[in-house]
Design brief:
Elements: H1 13-36, H2 40-66, H3 86-107, H4 113-132
Helix pairs in contact: 1-2, 1-3, 3-4
Protein name: Ferritin-like domain-containing protein
Organism: Nocardiopsis rhodophaea
Pfam family, one: DUF4439
Length: about 160
């Protein structure tokens, strides 16, 4: 993967791990918020997803430490939805998963096959969780609409 004008840094496995870790930190923060503001099955689902993201965060931190890289700490706060009504929380949760998928997309280009496997499984899990919250399935999960590869509809 080469550097682009929008992202001038050089690709490294460590850098890709850090991107994924930042996404997991945000997801952990977000799901704690969601769980505190919903009830019933939605609360149970949010806490299941919170546990999954905590496990991923811990895995990424361990992988960084094994590579003698200091894991980045979480931010003190992350963006939250404007309200706590069910629709806004669902949209927020789906967006968290889309951002997590985007975080793993770069890791899929890692030189280490263990990291590529982790990225593929994590992309799949994030996509499924997004769908559970009402997210839309896109042809290229993890890609933002402006980054997605072009398809030729004429074929």
């Amino acid at each position: 993967m080469s550097a682009t004008p929008e992202d001038p840094r050089e690709f490294t496995d460590i850098g890709a791990l850090r991107v994924a870790l930042r996404a997991e930190h945000a997801a952990v923060y977000g799901y704690a918020y969601i769980g505190a503001h919903c009830a019933g099955g939605r609360r149970e689902r949010s806490y299941e997803h919170l546990d999954a993201h905590r496990a991923q965060r811990d895995t990424l931190s361990t992988l960084l430490a094994e590579r003698e890289a200091e894991p980045d700490p979480s931010e003190s706060a992350y963006g939250l939805p404007d309200s706590t009504d069910d629709a806004d929380l669902d949209t927020y949760a789906a967006r968290l998963e889309e951002q997590t998928a985007q975080g793993y997309l770069e890791l899929a280009a890692a030189s280490d096959s263990v990291l590529r496997d982790l990225a593929a499984r994590s992309l799949q899990s994030a996509t499924v969780r997004a769908l559970e919250w009402g997210g839309k399935l896109t042809p290229f999960p993890g890609f933002s609409p402006d980054q997605a590869p072009k398809t030729d509809a004429a074929e």
